[in-house]
Amino acid sequence: MPGAAIPTVQVDDERVRVTEWRFPPGTATGWHRHEFDYVVVPVTNGTLTIANRDGRVQSELRHGIAYSRPAGVEHDVINDTAQEIAFVEIEIKRGGAA
C-alpha cells in the first residue's frame, strides 16, 4: 500500500479550490471522485500511474502544460517512479459569484 501524497490547499473560496499536490516516490492520492470540474498544471515533469475502473494507464506530465477533466472523474493517482512529482490542481466550483 503506497504512502499518502501531500496536498497543500492554497485557496479555497466560493469560486475555486487550488491545491498543490506533491507525490514523493511511492505515494498516492487514494481512490477519490472529483466533485468539480478541474484543471491540473504540472510543476515538474514526470509519469504518474492513474488507476480507474477500467485499469491503469501512465500519464506523462510536462512542466507548465495544463489539462482539464470534468466533475465525476473517479481514480487513484500513484507515483511509481523514483522522483518526486508535483502539480497544482484548480477545482472550479459551481455557482460561485462572477
Strand order of the largest sheet: 2-3-11-6-9
Q: Count the strands?
A: 11
Assembly state = single chain
Which value, in Å, is the CA radius of gyration? Answer: 13 Å
* Total helical elements: 0
Main pleated-sheet profile:
5 strands, antiparallel
CATH superfamily: Jelly Rolls
**Helix and strand pattern:** EEEEEEEEEEE
Task: Give the fraction of residues assigned to helices.
Answer: under 10%
The stretches of 5 or more residues where confidence is low (pLDDT under 50) are none
What would you say the CATH architecture is?
Sandwich
Number of domains: 1
Taken from the alpha-carbon principal axes, the silhouette is: globular
The class by helix and strand makeup works out as: mainly beta
CATH topology: Jelly Rolls
Give the rounded overall mean pLDDT.
94
Ends apart, CA distance between termini: 42 Å
Residue share in β-strands: over 45%
Task: Quickly name the level 1 CATH class.
Answer: Mainly Beta
Structure, described:
A five-stranded antiparallel beta sheet has the order 2-3-11-6-9, with no helix packed on it. It has a four-stranded antiparallel beta sheet with strand order 5-10-7-8, with no helix packed on it. It has one domain: Sandwich (Jelly Rolls), CATH 2.60.120. The chain is an all-beta fold and 98 residues long. 0% of the residues lie in helices and 58% in strands.
